[in-house]
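in:
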């Protein structure tokens, strides 16, 4: 890279527009840069060693599932809201941005599977590393809007039905997928996208990748730090079951009559040891409902003196470690009842940070993978920058009242400009306003349908 190219600002090294360093250790010896790799489904040490469905199995645990459901519900609580890419009525592109919003918004509401359900499934990427949904359009001869590409469905696919295809620099090119009547997907192998019948271009899919490492589109799992406490919990369940089987019900202790050493078995007429004979009768009693014993026998019930407190403490420890690993804090779940209000607030803020990041990532996926292509197919590449904005709400519910009061004070002092109302509405998780900005009331006060403040 010693050559130079002249620009307006002088000279710069040539080759800045090309990738040089490969995206993983397996590429350096391949020597076939024109080919691509279908990545295997396992993406970390435990999925490689214990099965690529490990994290799906972990989600059957009640605490793991509770943390996962908590995060997904918090992310999708407000639902998807769309807004024009240009909010200022006097700015260039405002009318086109409004037109694109009017074209896109009804399609997102008319998907065959509700968008909220699709996004709930896609957010499983937090546990599984990634989720992939195939984008399908109505056939042109059956389109609800003749001559236009109209969204029909976003269908989330099983993990084993697709495999990521990357170039030597770990850039996602597309997928190989299981198609009806074609061979199964071959993962971990080099392919040629130009000739492979199973290769499907990237733009055919919406992809959520959770916290990718080294640009790996398979992502990482938030369950990986929880694997050790989960595994210990699974082992402890087995021991706890043994404890319950042995000590939850009383044991029966019998004593033979004083001096009794042998008795005659009434069934066989044979002489047997008196202790063995009593044991047989006690076992029969344990498996039955009633038994009669000679008066000289002594029968007692032996109860366990412990309540399995060690097991309960162990399960509490494992659950706290699982919660900490997934949500980075413990007070979001039941074990935080001894914490102070200040501690709970700090922990809620920590959880809110994760939720906000996931919201932005989800909104970026919807806008980039779904809406942008929908705009491109119908209006051309030039209008792609005006793709409607996507929001899942930016503020926690408990903070909205404070923000409304603060914005009202700013409005009363004359600080807020009408051009800022769109941003304020997004901050308050409100739908975009229909009327012109100058006709709007101040945020959090006055009439809500285009009226003025009193």
């Amino acid at each position: 890279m010693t050559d130079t190219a002249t620009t307006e600002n002088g000279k710069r090294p040539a080759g800045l527009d090309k990738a040089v360093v490969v995206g993983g250790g397996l590429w350096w010896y391949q020597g076939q840069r024109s080919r691509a790799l279908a990545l295997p489904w396992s993406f970390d040490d435990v999925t490689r060693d214990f099965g690529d469905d490990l994290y799906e199995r972990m989600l059957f645990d009640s605490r793991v599932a509770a943390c996962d459901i908590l995060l997904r519900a918090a992310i999708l609580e407000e639902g998807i809201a769309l807004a024009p890419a240009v909010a200022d009525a006097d700015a260039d592109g405002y009318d086109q941005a409004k037109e694109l919003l009017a074209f896109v918004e009804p399609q997102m509401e008319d998907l065959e599977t509700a968008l909220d359900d699709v996004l709930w499934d896609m957010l499983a990427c937090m546990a599984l590393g990634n989720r992939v949904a195939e984008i399908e359009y109505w056939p042109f001869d059956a389109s609800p809007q003749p001559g236009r590409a109209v969204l029909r469905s976003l269908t989330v696919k099983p993990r084993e039905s697709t495999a990521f295809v990357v170039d030597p620099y770990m850039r996602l090119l597309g997928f190989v997928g299981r198609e009806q009547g074609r061979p199964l997907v071959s993962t971990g192998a080099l392919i040629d996208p130009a000739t492979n019948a199973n290769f499907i271009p990237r733009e055919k899919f919406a992809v959520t990748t959770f916290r990718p490492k080294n640009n790996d589109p398979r992502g990482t799992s938030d369950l990986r730090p929880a694997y050790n406490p989960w595994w210990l919990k699974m082992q402890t369940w087995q021991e706890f079951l043994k404890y319950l089987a042995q000590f939850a019900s009383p044991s029966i202790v019998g004593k033979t009559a004083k001096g009794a050493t042998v008795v005659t078995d009434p069934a066989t007429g044979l002489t047997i040891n008196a202790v063995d004979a009593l044991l047989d009768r006690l076992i029969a009693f344990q498996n039955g409902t009633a038994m009669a014993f000679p008066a000289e026998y002594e029968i007692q019930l032996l109860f366990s003196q412990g309540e399995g407190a060690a097991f309960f403490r162990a399960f509490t420890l494992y659950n706290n470690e699982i919660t900490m690993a997934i949500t980075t804090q413990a007070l979001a779940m039941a074990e935080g009842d001894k914490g102070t209000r200040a501690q709970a607030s700090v922990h809620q803020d920590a959880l809110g940070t994760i939720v906000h990041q996931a919201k932005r990532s989800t909104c970026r996926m919807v806008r980039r993978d779904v809406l942008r292509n929908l705009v491109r197919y119908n209006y051309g590449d030039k209008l792609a920058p005006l793709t409607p904005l996507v929001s899942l709400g930016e503020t926690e519910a408990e903070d909205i009242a404070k923000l409304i009061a603060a914005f009202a004070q700013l409005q009363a002092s004359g600080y807020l400009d009408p051009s800022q109302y769109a941003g304020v509405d997004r901050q308050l998780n409100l739908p975009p306003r229909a009327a012109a900005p100058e006709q709007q009331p101040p945020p959090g006060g006055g009439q809500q349908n285009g009226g003025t403040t009193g």
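note: The chain has three domains: 27-228+356-391, 230-309, 397-439.
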